[in-house]
Design brief:
The chain is mainly β. The protein is 0% helix and 46% strand. The protein has strands at 19-33, 36-53, 60-64, 70-74, 81-88, 99-103, 106-110, 119-127, 132-136, 142-145, 149-153, 159-162, 168-171, 177-180, 186-189, 195-200, 204-208, 214-218, 224-228, 234-238, 244-248, 254-256, 267-271, 277-281.
Length: 313
């Protein structure tokens, strides 16, 4: 794969650190019918993988992926390492171009070609601990661990986020969300997806599921928490107390088993819109170590790009 040199860009071929492989794989196009997907024809596909270490210092990262997987893990590194797995249908033409640039310490990666042709890219990155991350996947899975702060929008894909030391904003638009060890301000909206949050140490948290169930457990007493499930079950576990509590199950089963005081400064607001609601003491586990990279959250796999295949006459 060739990269075009220009201001703020690096040339992969000149770094001396690129490893690449191209594999021919049997592929199949799918048509989704009412009774499920049906294979209608098989054709060859190619998968290209390349890894590069970005020579410029990076303090922030933006990844925009058209349906592939994105995994970002902080580690004991001084430079960002990027591995791309590219699946495409026309091996004779070579893999589609991936856009990459560095400007002002911001590394930007995207796969614009895959918005219009049948291809997909998975990005897997190892970054220094101090990097902040913004990821959009348009339906693909996203996993981020150990970074200084993050913003994720999966467009329906699942998300897994752990050990975030700064602000975290997540929107999954129906995809499930798993959080662990978040310490900065937290805002999460699953748009109907399930939410599980453990070992949260954020002072402030706003969580909305739009009908999905929410289970949230704090490892440190928060200052302000708002949880709204719009019909889904809501479980909130917090240590310490007392708290000023506003709980409204909208007619569903409701239980508040913590110390409460309407004049307390820490506040908890939980509404479930008819779903069962429970607020209980947290069962504390060992405090998370902020900044330590956790295990890989999503195993990389070839992107499922066949679903975006152009219609054939």
């Amino acid at each position: 794969m060739r990269a075009v040199a220009g201001p703020g860009r690096w040339v992969w071929a000149l770094s001396g650190l690129v490893t690449a492989a191209v594999l021919m794989l049997p592929g199949a196009r799918l048509i989704t019918l009412r009774d499920g997907p049906v294979t209608v024809s098989a054709e060859p596909q190619a998968v290209a993988t390349r890894t590069v270490i970005v020579p410029q210092p990076v303090t922030s990262l933006t990844v925009q992926d058209n349906g592939g997987e994105v995994q970002v893990t902080a580690g004991q590194v001084s430079r960002v390492q990027v591995t791309e797995t590219i699946m495409y249908d026309q091996p004779g033409d070579g893999p589609p171009a991936v856009a990459q640039s560095v400007s002002g310490g911001r590394l930007t990666l995207s796969d614009p070609a895959c918005a219009n042709v049948n291809c997909g890219v998975n990005f897997s990155l190892t970054v220094p601990f101090g990097v902040t991350v913004s990821v959009a996947t348009q339906g693909g899975p996203a996993a981020v661990s150990g970074v200084a702060g993050a913003s994720l929008d999966t467009g329906g894909g699942p998300a897994r986020v752990s050990l975030i030391g700064g602000p975290l904003t997540v929107s999954t638009e129906g995809g499930p969300l798993v959080l662990r060890g978040v310490t900065g301000p937290l805002r999460a909206d699953t748009g109907g997806g399930n939410l599980l949050a453990q070992d949260v140490a954020s002072a402030t948290a706003t969580i909305t599921t739009g009908g999905g169930p929410a289970t949230v457990s704090f490892a440190a007493a928060p200052e302000s928490v708002s949880v709204s499930t719009d019909g889904g079950p809501a479980v909130l576990a917090v240590p310490g107390g007392p708290y000023a509590v506003a709980a409204d199950s909208g007619g569903g089963a409701q239980s508040v088993a913590i110390a409460t005081d309407p004049d307390a400064r820490p506040t908890l607001a939980v509404s479930s819109g008819g779903g069962p609601l429970r607020i209980e003491p947290a069962r504390l586990s060992p405090a998370p170590v902020t900044g330590a990279a956790g295990p890989a959250a999503i195993r990389p796999s070839p992107p499922a790009c066949a679903a975006r295949a152009p219609a054939r006459g």
